[in-house]
Amino acid sequence: MAKQLVILGGGESGVGAAVLAKHKGYEVLVSDGGSLKEVYRNELDAAGIEWEQGAHSVDRILEADEVVKSPGIPEKNELIKQIRKKGIPVISEIELAYRYKGDSKIVAITGSNGKTTTTSLIYHILNTGGLNTALVGNIGESFARQVALDPKPVYVVEVSSFQLDDIITFRPDIAVLTNITEDHLDRYDYNFENYIRSKFRIIENQKKGDYFIYNMDDEVTMRYIDQFKINSNQLPISMAHENNGAFIKDGEMYVRTGDDFMSMSVYDFTLKGKHNQYNTMAGSLAGTTMEIRKEKIREAVQTFQNLEHRMEHVATIRGVEFINDSKATNINSTWYALESMDKPTILVLGGVDKGNDYSLLMDMVKEKVKAIVCLGLDNQKIHAAFDGVVPVIVDTASAQEAVTAAFSYSEKGDVVLLSPGCASFDLFKNYEDRGTQFKKAVIDL
């Protein structure tokens, strides 16, 4: 009899998992407590996969041989508690995909900040170097759907801590940990250490021939790294120490793996800002370990295009530049965005707070920000932090209002930066929707 697989959550990762499971002969049910997008309903119908929305058939779910859990569902969810109590194995979509990836290689990237940029850069480097590669995970298509419908010899996978929470055998050939800062603490019982342990799970199944790329300038990573058994080859990146991975010294990036060596001026990177020099080091190292030629890595680093919603230049209107950094959903991302500003800044901030500590931004705000435009339903914490520090703080409840207000406080030579530091689902569908509405409002000015 076919194995019964229940997939909780019918978003991109859930539907991708369903398609792969169906391909592999499982009896599949997709169950979503909310509503499924029409595009996903059509895809499931076309594949002959059973689905339900708006409620869960609990008795049936508790009969499953295995459950694939969407990364968005927390452990404290009642249904998950019942599934755990019954001893039914719970896995993530990346674990299911890993089972069926065959001989393909995996480069997996996690971290609190910079992971999407680093993932996209590694994909660009491997493609430029001639490898047939898929970009999957939190970015683009689900890993499972790609394995089912269009398998590739190499997968570059962006993975979140939530996905790593439910792995068993998932093992990347190359694991990249960009950095660890406080994020999503609401999901980890407000215990930072739980979140750190989740991030380090990316290396727990690695073997001798695998690689682990990490940032040796990141305080949290270095404080905890010795607590984990690491079997893979460790390749650090740094701006402060020469090492056997990659480092930057006097404006030159040096990448070393074994006897091989390449160097390149940081002024040739298309990605600007100090944080992006770390991302570029990580990407170049990953390329070297995948045996991409130095000239190709150099070419890729010089031709990489930045992502939509990540420090994206929208327009310059009457001398005021507008930047869309809607992907900044935590305080550290906003800190990095402000760090790279070299003009007086009107900061658009706010949304759904994940336990943010705004004091981390204080020095940057004092130095660079002339006005804060709040874009969220509850802005009390932002006012509490910055009232009296910044001359102007206003509340707005739509992208259009925020853009109009920001423009009215700006003058020629200023920059309006949307870098909210918060999740978006109080006023928007997701960070992409927030960024798209912001860009539309700028163009409509």
TrEMBL record:
The text of the family note is: Belongs to the MurCDEF family.
Q: Which ranges carry the Mur ligase C-terminal domain? A: 309-420
Supply the gene name.
murD
Q: What keywords are annotated for this sequence in UniProt?
A: ATP-binding, Cell cycle, Cell division, Cell shape, Cell wall biogenesis/degradation, Cytoplasm, Ligase, Nucleotide-binding, Peptidoglycan synthesis
Function per UniProt? Cell wall formation. Catalyzes the addition of glutamate to the nucleotide precursor UDP-N-acetylmuramoyl-L-alanine (UMA).
Pathway connected to this protein: Cell wall biogenesis; peptidoglycan biosynthesis
List the protein's name: UDP-N-acetylmuramoylalanine--D-glutamate ligase
Q: Which reaction does it catalyse?
A: UDP-N-acetyl-alpha-D-muramoyl-L-alanine + D-glutamate + ATP = UDP-N-acetyl-alpha-D-muramoyl-L-alanyl-D-glutamate + ADP + phosphate + H(+)
Q: Which GO terms describe its molecular function?
A: UDP-N-acetylmuramoylalanine-D-glutamate ligase activity
Its taxonomic placement starts with: Bacteria, Pseudomonadati, Bacteroidota, Chitinophagia, Chitinophagales
* Location within or outside the cell: Cytoplasm
Q: Where on this chain does ATP bind?
A: G111, S112, N113, G114, K115, T116, T117
The highest taxon in the source lineage is Bacteria
